[in-house]
Amino acid sequence: MKLVTFSVGSGLRVGLTDGEHVADLTARLSTHPRTMIELIERWDDVAGEVRAIGDRDHALADVRLHAPIPRPGKIYALGLNYRQHVAEMGRELPAHQTWFTKPGTAVNGPYDPVQRPKVSEQLDYEVELVVVIGKRCRHVPAEKAQEVIFGYCVGNDVSVRDWQTRTQQFVIGKSFDTHAPFGPWIETSDGVDAGDLDLRLLVNGEERQHSNTRDMIFDCAAQVADLSTAMTLEPGDVIFTGTPSGVAAGMRPPRWLKAGDRVRAEISGIGHIEALVVDEVAEIHAPE
To answer: Based on the domain organization, do 37 and 12 belong to the same domain?
Structure first.
């Protein structure tokens, strides 16, 4: 099933889509979920109701899709997780998972513009499979990880490379506003084989990345096991699971994104997201 966060006019709502139409779950379900996190938390109680919905309320073209989870409790992302990407960056295969975070303010809608920041010209793209956690959990063994994964999205871990590499801690280069677009919906885990998905990223129609999740060094189950060893994972937490080769930083010379570029990230069986790159218009937000 494909679950969306959408709006028609003002106010966010939760919906079910078939790719052409949307059913308003906020209005239809007995629990009236206001957010995707509420829906995920109550999924065991309402899944039957959702599956029974036949007709739809809106054409998909008539609604605005937002990030499925507009403000996740946690966003973690895994670096250097595809063998060919590690090779193009001239690195050795990691013995341990390399984690960083992205803030909630980086979340962006699946078709909203991505900003090229005023402070850098080294704007890069990274198509990624995104995992959405479905249950509160801790110390989850890899063989049980599928039980706590609610679903999957398409993501783009947009990166500002000079800010990422200027210190050993590269979180800030991954944290700029609009630099965590994902969606266009959550494909529930019962319909996805995360171990065999094709990923592609195109810039202005030119293919830059093309791989398969089989090239992952640490699969989704291993990632859930690793993270949950350190922290409690909660419904609606989001994991960006790594990117394949073909990033702009790996090219000689690098081919950074610029204003006017259109970036499309897609994953087989899930869907695609697409963004126009725009130059940031800096505004000072400070107390008067």
So the answer is: yes
Examine residue 119 and state whether it is found in any structural domain, yes or no: yes
Which residue range(s) make up the domain with 115?
A: 75-279
Residue 47 lies in a domain: yes
Q: Are 220 and 100 part of one and the same domain? A: yes
User: Quick check: 126 and 247 in contact, CB under 8 A?
Assistant: yes
Number of domains in the chain: 2
Asked if residue 226 lies in contact with residue 220, where contact means CB atoms within 8 angstroms, the answer is no
Residues 114, 9 within the same domain:
no
Is the CB of residue 235 less than 8 Å from the CB of residue 134?
Answer: yes
pTM metric for this prediction: 0.96
Q: Are residues 158 and 123 in the same domain?
A: yes
DSSP state of 214: G
Q: Which of 122, 125, 127, 126 has the alpha carbon at shortest distance from 166?
A: 122
98 and 61 share one domain: no
pLDDT tens digits for the chain (288 residues)? 999 999 998 899 999 999 999 999 999 999 999 999 999 999 999 999 999 998 889 999 999 999 999 999 999 999 999 999 999 988 899 999 999 999 999 999 999 999 999 999 999 999 999 999 999 999 999 999 999 999 999 999 999 999 999 998 889 999 999 999 999 999 999 989 999 999 999 999 999 999 999 999 999 999 999 999 999 999 999 999 999 999 999 999 999 999 999 999 999 999 999 999 999 987 766 665
